[in-house]
Design goal:
This protein is of the alpha/beta class. It contains 13 helices and 13 strands. It has two domains: about 10-185 and about 345-375, Rossmann fold (3-Layer(aba) Sandwich), CATH 3.40.50; about 195-340, Glycogen Phosphorylase B (Rossmann fold, 3-Layer(aba) Sandwich). α1 crosses α13 and α9 (about 275-285) packs across α12 (about 325-340).
């Protein structure tokens, strides 16, 4: 029997992309309010630098499993093992809510409320990137497992209205889904002198991030272009660097935030971005934003950025050239971006999740009480 009255959240996470920043930041915010959080990592283990992002708080624990992520295991061959491993972890922790940062884990027959946070999926990525190689097995099974997870979850959320609409259209879940914007801590240092540098960050190999488009135009830009991020897919090897840009490598988050603090402009020509945490971080550090004209970026940054067609090299060059040469416009956009970033505060994200967790547990408690009365009537 559990004697600790503090709410307990079991949260799955992975260390491959922005989900790690999201999960560790949310866990830190919950723990600061006295909630217990157990992070369960799936996929490749977090690096020492990533683990250092976790605050030294006794209310946060972490279990590293190396269970397969959905996109690593589209045929679902690891599901039986995952059910057993996660059930054992949950039995030891006794959570009030299971928060899945993937989809299929929500279908594992949990006895407590289950929340799915929809961060991305291969099907929506492929459609945005014009890729058609994910239409056959094992990706049909992958999509069925995502649908099963959404259907089994007590509730699901998305980080933007735009991405909620995408998930609803692709998978037609039996619940409408909610939007909780991602948030970051208000810990940006005082504005420093900016350098005449254009910065971009993301997985350079990822067609959705579209950073190869920037490499193509780097020689035609008036300011140097700096790129941060992994050049190759995980485990693919290779060490070639972009010849026309200053390649910073795959930086740890503190180092990337330092680059953002010094760069005058941040550009994201993404074809696919359900939210765009790096854009938010750059805006909070006072970068002027040049963004692709896609629905999620319009939703989040309309009126605080220059928008361009991500498929048009000329549009990218014109948008960046404008900010390089017009000090007044650039300074104004830096201010607007930083002001807009305050809408997406970690405190608001944490509060929204706490409210949702409470509503899920209260709904289940009410249903259990009603069922008990029916059984004894």
């Amino acid at each position: 029997m559990r004697h600790d009255p503090r709410p307990r959240i079991l949260m799955t996470a992975d260390a491959v992309g922005g989900v790690w920043t999201y999960a560790t930041s949310l866990a830190a915010g919950l723990a600061a309010d006295g909630w217990r959080v157990q992070l369960v990592t799936m996929g490749p283990k977090p690096s020492p630098e990533q683990l250092s992002a976790l605050p030294a708080n006794s209310l946060i624990s972490i279990v590293q499993t190396e269970l397969q992520l959905e996109w690593q295991d589209p045929a679902g061959l690891d599901i039986a093992r995952a059910r057993t491993v996660l059930a054992g972890i949950a039995a030891d922790f006794s959570p009030d809510v299971i928060h899945c940062n993937g989809y299929r884990e929500a279908s594992y027959g949990w006895r407590v409320p289950t929340l799915v946070a929809a961060h991305s999926c291969v099907q929506s990525w492929a459609r945005a990137c014009g890729v058609s190689t994910f239409d056959d097995e094992p990706w049909l099974t992958y999509r069925q497992n995502i649908g099963a997870g959404l259907g089994s979850a007590t509730a699901w959320v998305a980080p933007s209205q735009a991405f909620r609409s995408v998930i609803a259209r692709l998978y037609q879940p039996n619940k409408p889904g909610r939007v909780i914007y991602n948030g970051i801590a208000d810990d940006a240092p005082a504005r420093a002198a900016k350098r005449d540098v254009i910065l971009s960050a993301g997985r350079i190999w990822d067609r959705g991030k579209n950073l190869r488009r920037l490499i193509e135009i780097a020689d035609e830009l008036d300011w140097p272009l700096a790129l941060a991020g992994a050049l190759h897919e995980p485990f693919s090897g290779g060490k070639a660097e972009p010849a026309t840009a200053h390649y910073l490598g795959a930086l740890a988050r503190p180092a990337l935030l330092d680059e953002m603090h010094r760069a005058a402009i941040f550009v994201s020509p993404a074809r696919y971005e359900p939210f765009g945490l790096s854009v938010l971080e750059a805006a909070s550090r006072g970068c002027a934003l040049v963004l692709s004209d896609i629905p999620s970026f319009r939703e989040l940054w309309d009126g605080a950025a220059v928008f361009v067609d991500p498929e048009s090299p000329g549009a990218l060059i014109r948008g960046l050239t404008l900010l390089c040469h017009d000090d007044a416009v650039r300074s104004h956009l830096q201010h607007l971006a930083q002001e807009r970033s305050r809408r997406y505060a970690l405190t608001e994200t944490v509060r929204a999740y706490q409210d949702l967790y409470r509503s899920l547990t209260q709904t289940v408690a009410t249903a259990d009480a009603s069922h008990s009365r029916e059984m004894t009537a």
